[in-house]
Amino acid sequence: MFRDKAPSNTAYPYIVYTYINQDYKRASGSIYRVFPKYQVSLFTTGVEDEFKAIRDALNERKVLFSPMNSIQGDENDETVTNFYITVGCVEDVV
Q1: Overall pTM > 0.90
Q2: What value does the mean pLDDT take over residues 69-78?
């Protein structure tokens, strides 16, 4: 698993997560909870079934995530697919 970008020549499949944005919950004008969002991507030359392990791990831990999407690309004459979801987190502010 890598943050933002995998090193060159990393073997497929691999996972990359990237910070997207965050929302806030406020009370009495102060932030008391932060909700950061991340994109979790599986880059693979395989099929969507490879994403099942990630989905099941998040679901088992009751982590909320968006439906899976995908984008295909070409890397050295090989089809590479980016299967990705958005994961929401919760952070208490003290």
Answers
A1: no
A2: 88
